[in-house]
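Treating backbone geometry as a discrete language has practical consequences that deserve illustration. The sequence in question and its structure tokens are set out directly beneath this paragraph.
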Amino acid sequence: MSMLEVRAHESPRAEDLVPAAALFHGLSDPTRLSILQHLTLGEHRVRDLTDHLGLAQSTVSAHLACLRDCGLVTSRPQGRASMFSLTTAPELLAVLGAAEKLLAVNGYVVALCPNYGVGTTGNPDPADLKTHRKDESDQ
């Protein structure tokens, strides 16, 4: 049973979920998701990605470094360039596909999340988390 699967007899400890949270942080940027999506088509040079995304080389390189540090992409030298590719394409495609299904089911309501939705920045501390809903204890 994986650390993310719900267990009827026990709750996972927060520290056991840290690697999963780190993975989701690595996937939390639209530019990184665009890079990953483009890499599903095959290997690409940084130049290919900058042309496709319309971003500065330094921006694409920084995001690729993050994705490499997260273990999601790898690179190999080809002449003076580096060719980037997905490290585990089937598993990553499964995660991204599951995310698309979840977004379709919940009507993209996550975009309205006051903590992580459209227009928000950063990662709030638990004490600073906001809600749209009135807590029953507030009524």
User: Anything to note?
Assistant: The beta strands are 44-45, 73-78, 81-86. The two ends are 40 Å apart (CA to CA).
